[in-house]
Design brief:
Layout: H1 2-47, H2 51-64, H3 69-81, H4 85-98, H5 102-118, H6 122-135, H7 140-203, H8 212-229, H9 241-267
Helix pairs in contact: 1-2, 1-3, 2-3, 3-4, 3-5, 4-5, 5-6, 5-7, 6-7
Length: 278
């Protein structure tokens, strides 16, 4: 009896799980159908060039079923048509992550390549087109775009290399100019030192090229000579003018003394009259 009860319980539990699974699957199916309905409506609006309303429908589809690739992919196309390349790249990258089939991945990578070409990112576009061809090697349009992207990437690389080369040349020229200035300064420095030494030497010389000390000595000698020129130099065996003058003065003084003595003797024998009284 107990075994029968256990078996019935197991059967009821299994039946319940089966019903729940079926219900979930049915709900998911309805969700996908609703999301696909939004995508379909968005596609209809795209045909009518109503991108704003189409974008709303695609967003509804993504909100209803985030895993649905068509909503994300078509929303990315809408941004691309509007020129919003950053948002378009973001949506197509999401589409690649959600894609299950190779066809879905091929389309998303192809559009990523187109977006990168619009942004002049040619090197990155090459890789995107390669990824698209890995998922569908038969697509001639992707293969053509890959060739165009390679040529663009080559031109960009050549331009970059040329700019780097010019930059290096400018740097080399700058270094050469710097080295040349340093060499010029080194050449000028000895000359300046020589000029300074020469100047210092010239300061010690007069206009005739003689040292200042010699010039001052010569000047002193000339001044002494000039003073001596004002006085007659005594000749050997002769009296100098000063000596002659002193000798004459001495003779005159001696002569005056003799005269004074004679006059005194004459006046001694003469009587002097007294003064009158009043």
């Amino acid at each position: 009896m107990k075994k029968l009860v256990i078996i019935c319980a197991v059967l009821l539990t299994t039946l319940s799980f089966a019903q729940d699974k079926e219900a979930r699957e049915r709900a998911q199916q309805l969700t996908l159908e609703k999301a696909n309905s939004y995508v379909y409506d968005g596609n209809e609006l795209i045909e009518a060039d109503n991108y704003i309303s189409a974008e709303k429908e695609y967003r509804k589809a993504i909100s209803k079923a985030p895993s649905i690739v068509a909503g994300t992919y078509n929303l990315g196309n809408t941004h691309y048509e509007k020129g919003n390349y950053d948002e378009a790249l973001y949506r197509h990258t999401q589409a690649v992550e959600k894609a299950i089939t190779k066809t879905e991945k091929h389309k998303a990578y192809h559009n990523i390549g187109n977006i990168l070409m619009k942004e002049a990112q040619c090197k990155e576009a090459v890789e995107a087109y390669k990824s698209a061809l890995r998922n569908d090697p038969t697509d001639d349009e992707t293969r053509y775009n890959l060739v165009v992207a390679k040529e663009c990437a080559a031109q960009q690389q050549e331009k970059k290399d040329k700019e780097e080369e010019n930059k290096d040349e400018d740097k080399d020229d700058e270094n050469k100019d710097k080295d040349q200035k340093e060499d010029d300064q080194k050449k000028e420095d000895p000359k300046d030192e020589g000029d300074q030494d020469k100047k210092d030497g010239d300061d010690q010389k007069d206009d005739e090229g003689k040292p200042k000390d010699e010039k001052d000595q010569d000047k002193g000698d000339k001044q002494d000579d000039k003073k001596q020129k004002g006085k007659p130099k005594p000749q050997p065996g002769q009296l100098s003018p000063q000596q002659i003058k002193n000798l004459l003065e001495a003779m005159n003084n001696q002569e005056q003394k003799v005269l004074d003595k004679i006059n005194a003797q004459k006046q001694k024998g003469v009587k002097v009259k007294p003064e009158k009284d009043w």
